[in-house]
Design goal:
With about 240 residues, the chain is mostly helical. Helices cover about 70% and strands about 0% of the residues. It has 10 helices and no strands. It has helices spanning about 1-20, 25-45, 50-75, 85-105, 120-135, 140-160, 165-170, 180-190, 205-220, 225-239. Helix 2 packs antiparallel against helix 3 (about 50-75), helix 3 packs antiparallel against helix 4 (about 85-105) and helix 4 packs antiparallel against helix 5. The longest helix is centred in the N-terminal third of the chain and has 26 residues, at about 50-75. The radius of gyration is 19 Å and the shape is globular.
């Protein structure tokens, strides 16, 4: 029976890949969920870690959920979405949970950037989680982040120093927890204000790439999920 379930799960995964590539997110979602449900109980290691096809299926499901969230948000802005805020929030929560599970099981080879000027897969996951957290913010919370950005940009414009506080903080510290609150605030707010769109540029400012890498390290080494880090930073900003 387990052999049949594994075959069915792998087939569902392959179908989900094809549908996702073709842009059929609803169809991809169903098959990816089936693949995860079938493969994870069979492929999970003795130590509870994911590997093989089950890991890739969960990675795909994370991307499908994220793309659906972006699609729904775009449609909502044009008043074409047939999805309630509660449904969108539930999907965001699922996507974040999947991404953070993937991050926890990420192979060591994918925890560091392979080339200069690029992000590791771990940092890319962090970026997705933070983007999803921004999607789920209420108007008042988002407004607080906007206010923080405006204040910090005004302060930076009047300063004579050419190096940003965030860049200095990152270069002088070894972990996210040691960054100065104002620098973290600016980084979170800047990430929050990035356009959320399926056609958004893939270019990421260097200071944000460094921040995503640091948040990923916190998650991998100190087991602090990116979503928890974000919640803490929003609390710092609002305080």
């Amino acid at each position: 029976v387990s052999s049949d379930e594994k075959t069915t799960g792998r087939l569902a995964f392959e179908l989900a890949q094809v549908l996702h590539f073709k842009g059929d997110l609803t169809g991809a979602k169903g098959y990816a969920e089936d693949a995860v449900k079938l493969l994870i109980p069979l492929d999970v290691g003795r130590d509870g870690d994911l590997s093989g096809t089950s890991f890739e299926a969960l990675t795909l499901l994370s991307r499908v959920y994220e793309d659906l969230c972006i699609r729904f948000l775009e449609l909502h802005e044009t008043e074409q979405a047939d999805v309630s805020p509660a449904q969108l929030q539930a999907l965001i929560t699922k996507a974040i949970k999947c991404f953070e599970t993937v991050l926890k099981n990420l192979p060591a080879s994918e925890q560091v950037a392979r080339h200069a000027g690029t992000m590791s897969r771990a940092a890319q996951i962090v970026e997705s989680v933070l983007r999803l957290k921004v999607m789920g913010l209420g108007d008042s919370e988002y407004s607080v982040l906007v206010d923080a950005v405006e204040e910090l940009l005004l302060h930076a414009a009047s300063a004579s120093e050419t190096t940003s506080s965030l860049q200095r903080a990152i270069s002088q510290t070894r972990g996210v927890r040691q960054l100065q609150p104002r620098a973290e605030t600016r980084a979170v707010a800047e990430a929050a204000l990035r356009p959320v769109s399926s056609t958004v540029s893939l270019d990421v400012p260097e200071k944000l790439m460094e921040l995503f890498e640091e948040v990923a390290k916190e998650a991998l080494i100190n087991h602090i999920p990116p979503s928890s880090w974000f919640d803490r930073m929003v609390h710092v900003v609002a305080a």
